[in-house]
Each structure stands twice: as structure tokens, then as C-alpha cells.
Automatic annotation (TrEMBL):
Pathway: Polyol metabolism; myo-inositol biosynthesis; myo-inositol from D-glucose 6-phosphate: step 2/2
Gene Ontology molecular function, alphabetical: inositol monophosphate 1-phosphatase activity; metal ion binding
InterPro entries in the record: IMPase, Inositol_monoP_metal-BS, Inositol_monoPase_Li-sen, Inositol_monophosphatase-like, Inositol_monophosphatase_CS
Reaction equations catalysed: a myo-inositol phosphate + H2O = myo-inositol + phosphate
Keywords: Hydrolase, Magnesium, Metal-binding
Name of the protein: Inositol-1-monophosphatase
Coiled-coil spans in chain: none
Length: 323
């Protein structure tokens, strides 16, 4: 059974203007009101993976507003998943939500935070919005209908020559040796190409929108989640860019690996020098780079990737502290 995607999408699109006005404007106000305030911060999967009550509040607000209108639709929301919901993407109409992308920025009042909402049917993203709250920029795209920022059409830079590229990436939340050494050696190898520069804004969604709006020529990252980039991946491709797996292969929303670029040539240039560290997929399926029996070097020793997939022995629960 497949949903009649065009009918579902048409219905949702007809209401989308209202949803946007309602859900996003309230969510925006909640984020802006809380931005300057002192936050109660909890940790999730690592000491650098933060969450606040505002993340949870905005997600609840968006989900309950959408549920009222579409009670049968499914949700993959960052904070619902953190609370135990399953992040498996099915063919059902599904809203993929990151209530605050850039929570570390939000906690530190570094002024780049976004709300990211994508809508997928039959596992295909039909439309997406990224609202960059402090900049008051609303990026949006609908499949086959182009990408816009505050209603102005977007085009990537179209750059082909990687030596002239400004590349965006993220530091992410992993703090183990293998992830950190891969991250820093990737940056080293890119700078040695040489490229013009590397930036990290602190929100994957905005990073990708910068590629869509020609403020940057490429973005790559391993370790972000589907809710960070579902909307912005569509925004990049609708703005004329390309979106690939970190290896240069086909992009897979649930794989936690991405290159978004102004052109195929720039994407290929990045894929040739960057490496991925093992990263458990959002849907829990086996990672392409973690075939059974494969080995990875960690802390100077070769260990089985099966071992790497075991739950960590460090505390992964929620710890409350104030910032
Ligand atoms: O947690 P969050 O602030 O929604 O999302 C994070 C941001 O996108 C950050 O830029 C990226 O480096 C992390 O991997 C994401 O988890
Ligand atoms: Mg995020
Ligand atoms: Mg978030």
C-alpha cells in the first residue's frame, strides 16, 4: 500500500500557509523569549549533546499543532526520539522536526538557531522549512518548485573549482578519539587542497541553507541526524545544488552522513579527501562502512566494528545542571 502522495501533499500544501503562520510564529516567539534567559541544560548522548526545556517545549507545541490538523500523520522529532520514540521513516506522511537546531548556540546565546521542519511521504521529502530565528530568515522549498528565503528565490553559487571554495562543516557532539582525529584530519586535508576557508556556524540546518543561498559553496558532516538536515537537503537541491553521501554516493537521510555542494565537482573534491568515522544510523540499520567483521582503528588498536556498535559504557542518561 502506498499513499497517494500527490493528493496527500496537495492537501497538506493547501493548509501549509496556515500551519506555518500558526506553528512557526508561535515557536519562533518561544525561542526568542527564551534566548536571553538562563537555561536549565541536560545532557543526552555526550557531554556536548545538550537539550533545554525550550527544545522540548517547542517540539511539543509543533507536534500538537500539526496533530490537531492531521491526526494520522507520523512524527520523527529530535526530542521525542531522545525520550524513546522510534525514528524509523516509513511510507506514511511523516513530519521530521528539529525544534531548535543549534542548541549549544542557544545555551551560549551565540545568535544562530533554527527551527527545522520537513514533511515526507513515501520516504521522499516533499517540502521543508528552516527558520533561522535570530536572523528572521525563513528558508523553504517544495519538491520541484524551487527554494526561497523570505520569498526571494535561492540559487547556489554554482562554483566548480574547489580551490576557491568556502566550506562549512560542524564539530558535532562526539568527543571520542576516533571521531575527533577523523574530524581534525578531514579539516587538515581540505585546507591542504587548498580551499579558501572552513566555517562552522553551529547549526547544520543553517549551514546547508548557506550553501543553498551561495553564502558557502559546500557543507559536509558525519554524525548529524535526519531532523538536522531533512528540510535543508531539499532546500539545497531545489536551489540547484547537489546532496550526496560523504563517500560521494547516493544521499541517505537516515545515514547521518552528508555532502551538500554548489556542484558535483566540488562534492567529488570533498568526498575524495574526507573520511567518515563509524556512526550508528538513525533507523538502527547496519552502517555501510560497518560490515560485519570489518575493523576500525581506535586508540591505536584495531577493533571490530561490531564492538563499536555496542552501547557505550559511559553514562548516556540525562544529567541536570545549570548554565
Ligand atoms: O542538537 P541540535 O542543536 O539540534 O543539532 C546539532 C547541530 O546541528 C550542530 O550543528 C551539529 O553539529 C550537531 O551534530 C547537531 O546535533
Ligand atoms: Mg539539530
Ligand atoms: Mg535540536
Amino acid at each position: 500500500f502506498h499513499f497517494d502522495s500527490s493528493r496527500t501533499v496537495c492537501t497538506v500544501m493547501a493548509d501549509w500557509g496556515k500551519c506555518l503562520d500558526f506553528g512557526v510564529s508561535i515557536a519562533r516567539q518561544v525561542v526568542l523569549d527564551a534566548f536571553e534567559a538562563q537555561k536549565v541544560v541536560s545532557l543526552k548522548t555526550s557531554p556536548a549533546d545538550l537539550v533545554t526545556e525550550t527544545d522540548q517545549g517547542v517540539e511539543n507545541l509543533l507536534i500538537s499543532a500539526i496533530k490537531e490538523k492531521y491526526p494520522t500523520h507520523k512524527f520523527i522529532g529530535e526530542e521525542s526520539v531522545a525520550a524513546g520514540a522510534s525514528p524509523v521513516l516509513t511510507d506514511s506522511p511523516t513530519w521530521i522536526i528539529d525544534p531548535i537546531d543549534g542548541t549549544t548556540n542557544f545555551v551560549h546565546r551565540f545568535p544562530f538557531v533554527a527551527i527545522s521542519i520537513a514533511f515526507a511521504v513515501n520516504k521522499q521529502t516533499e517540502f521543508g522549512i528552516v527558520y533561522s530565528c535570530m536572523e528572521d530568515k525563513l528558508y523553504r522549498a517544495q519538491r520541484g518548485k524551487g527554494a526561497f528565503c523570505n520569498d526571494i528565490p535561492l540559487r547556489t553559487s554554482g562554483l566548480e573549482d574547489i580551490t576557491k571554495a568556502l566550506v562549512v562543516t560542524e564539530i558535532g557532539t562526539e568527543r571520542d578519539d576516533l571521531s575527533l582525529s577523523t574530524l581534525t584530519s578531514n579539516i587538515y586535508r581540505l585546507l591542504k587542497i587548498p580551499i579558501h576557508g572552513i566555517r562552522a556556524v553551529g547549526t547544520a540546518a543553517v549551514d546547508m541553507c548557506l550553501v543553498a543561498s551561495a553564502g558557502a559553496d559546500a557543507y559536509y558532516h558525519v554524525g548529524m541526524h535526519c531532523w538536522d538536515i531533512a528540510a535543508s537537503a531539499l532546500i539545497v537541491s531545489e536551489a540547484g545544488g547537489v546532496v550526496h553521501d560523504i563517500s560521494g554516493g547516493k544521499f541517505d537521510l537516515m545515514s547521518r552522513r552528508v555532502i551538500a555542494a554548489s556542484s558535483r565537482t566540488v562534492a567529488r573534491g570533498i568526498a575524495q579527501v574526507v573520511e567518515a568515522f563509524p556512526c550508528e544510523r538513525d533507523d538502527g540499520l547496519p552502517d555501510a562502512d560497518q560490515a560485519i567483521g570489518a575493523l576500525t582503528q581506535r586508540d591505536g588498536h584495531w577493533v571490530s566494528n561490531d564492538f563499536l556498535k555496542l552501547p557505550c559504557d559511559k553514562p548516556c542518561g540525562i544529567v541536570i545542571e545549570s548554565v
